[in-house]
């Protein structure tokens, strides 16, 4: 299964917490299905760094077929 790593930062105000299924307002990393993946963060910069770190981590993770084998 090929999952998209495209995330965008969204500032969720108190009035929209139900829309994104989150418990509090703040900055969130949201995927293309409007699902909050990371957060909440206090600032856009903090959220942006978390998105960058997540994308870098996902890019480094080997696929299940290329992992080391224990014998």
Helical segment tally?
Answer: 1
Largest sheet, described in full?
A: 3 strands, antiparallel
Q: How far apart, in Å, are the first and last alpha carbons?
A: 27 Å
Secondary-structure-based class equals: alpha+beta
Number of strands: 3
Beta fraction:
15-25%
Radius of gyration: 15 Å
Shape: globular
Helix content: 10-25%
Describe the structure using short key phrases.
alpha+beta; 71 residues; 3 strands; 3-stranded antiparallel β-sheet; globular; 1 helix
Blueprint (SSEs and pairs):
Blueprint: E1 8-12, E2 26-30, E3 36-41, H1 44-60
Antiparallel strand pairs: 1-2, 2-3
Short overview:
This protein has 71 residues and is of the alpha+beta class. The protein has one helix at 44-60, and strands at residues 8-12, 26-30, 36-41.
Question: What does it look like?
Answer:
By secondary structure, this protein is an alpha+beta fold. It has one domain (8-60). Helix content is 24%, strand content 23%. The protein is built from 1 helix and 3 strands; from the N terminus they run βββα. The chain has one helix spanning 44-60; strands at residues 8-12, 26-30, 36-41. A 3-stranded antiparallel sheet has the order 1-2-3. The two termini are 27 Å apart.
């Amino acid at each position: 299964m090929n999952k998209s790593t495209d995330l965008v930062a969204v500032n969720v105000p108190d009035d929209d917490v139900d829309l994104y299924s989150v418990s509090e307002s703040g900055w969130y990393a949201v995927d293309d299905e409007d699902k909050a993946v990371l957060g909440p963060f206090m600032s856009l910069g903090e959220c942006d760094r978390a998105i960058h770190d997540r994308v870098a981590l996902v890019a480094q993770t080997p696929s299940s077929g290329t992992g080391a084998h224990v014998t």
